[in-house]
């Protein structure tokens, strides 16, 4: 469960400044939203702000979970170590860069967030997702030995391995063929449903988003400013 009201994030300065606004968003547990908008409108910026990687200029309500954690209050009080702990425990990220650790093999990369949190490394759900995403034959390989699409599938699985409350995925299917992209969305939907997490997934793939009938958070852009709203 995620509730955000009156969020403003500012990127850059002067004439380069870009202001990203999210007037209101309520995302229930078990709900997945697609985030769309033209290049440069602030989709990654929005995800970074919701992922506690960027401090917003302003936010009235910013709550996560049930019972809810008041993230806005923690940000106002600059409780950085608590925010870092929440990020590690409750948030899962798929960044555009992938971000796998090069010196760990695929299995260790997937299990790392669980180990950091002291959870059992093995999980039946994750083993099932490894099969669905056709990653079994890659488990002992290092990321450098994988294709970009394979790395992306591993990064997606790692993002949900520790069963976060909120999944933030930035174009997770960009490097995938249509079949793999579908499988990945299916895994996300299964996980979102099984774990009752909330998810925001940036995607340019309209056909894919529509075929899963996902609600859409779209940016309306003007020069120097974008506002995100459900359509
Ligand atoms: N680190 C930064 N410092 C200053 N400005 C930035 C920074 N990162 C992004 N911006 C600017 O903020 C605006 C939003 O960028 P952002 O990357 O969030 O857009 P996006 O919608 O994710 O774009 P794309 O679809 O091309 O990935 C752009 O004008 C961009 O130039």
UniProtKB/TrEMBL annotation:
Provide the alphabetized UniProt keywords.
ATP-binding, Nucleotide-binding
What molecular function terms (GO) are annotated for this protein? ATP binding
Residue ranges constituting the ABC transporter domain according to the UniProt record: 2-231
Classification via Gene3D superfamilies? P-loop containing nucleotide triphosphate hydrolases (3.40.50.300)
Output the InterPro entries linked to this UniProt entry.
Answer: AAA+_ATPase, ABC_transporter-like_ATP-bd, ABC_transpr_LolD-like, P-loop_NTPase
UniProt xrefs under SMART domains: AAA (SM00382)
- Leader sequence segment: none
In terms of Pfam families, this protein maps to: ABC_tran
Family to which the UniProt record says this protein belongs: Belongs to the ABC transporter superfamily.
What is this protein's record name? Answer: ATP-binding cassette domain-containing protein
- Protein source organism: Denitrificimonas halotolerans
């Amino acid at each position: 469960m995620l509730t955000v009201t009156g969020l403003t994030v500012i990127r850059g300065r002067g004439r380069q400044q870009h202001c990203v606004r999210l007037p209101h968003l309520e995302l229930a547990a078990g709900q997945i939203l697609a985030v769309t908008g033209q290049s440069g409108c602030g989709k990654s910026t929005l995800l970074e702000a919701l992922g506690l990687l960027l401090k917003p200029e302003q936010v009235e309500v910013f709550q996560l979970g049930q019972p809810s954690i008041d993230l806005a209050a923690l940000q106002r009080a600059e409780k950085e170590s608590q925010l870092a702990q929440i990020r590690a425990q409750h948030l899962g990220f798929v960044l555009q860069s992938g971000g796998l650790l090069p010196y760990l093999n695929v299995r260790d990369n997937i299990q790392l967030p669980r180990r950091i949190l002291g959870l059992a490394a093995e999980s039946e759900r994750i083993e099932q997702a490894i099969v669905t995403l056709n990653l079994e034959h890659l488990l002992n390989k290092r990321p450098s030995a994988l294709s970009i699409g394979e790395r992306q599938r591993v990064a997606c699985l790692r993002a949900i391995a520790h069963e976060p409350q909120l999944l933030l995925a930035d174009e997770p299917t960009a490097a995938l063929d249509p079949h793999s992209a579908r499988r990945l969305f299916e895994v996300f939907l299964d996980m979102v449903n099984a774990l009752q997490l909330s998810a925001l997934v940036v995607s340019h793939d309209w056909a894919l988003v529509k075929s899963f009938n996902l609600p859409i958070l779209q940016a309306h852009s003007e020069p120097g400013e974008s506002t995100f709203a459900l359509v």
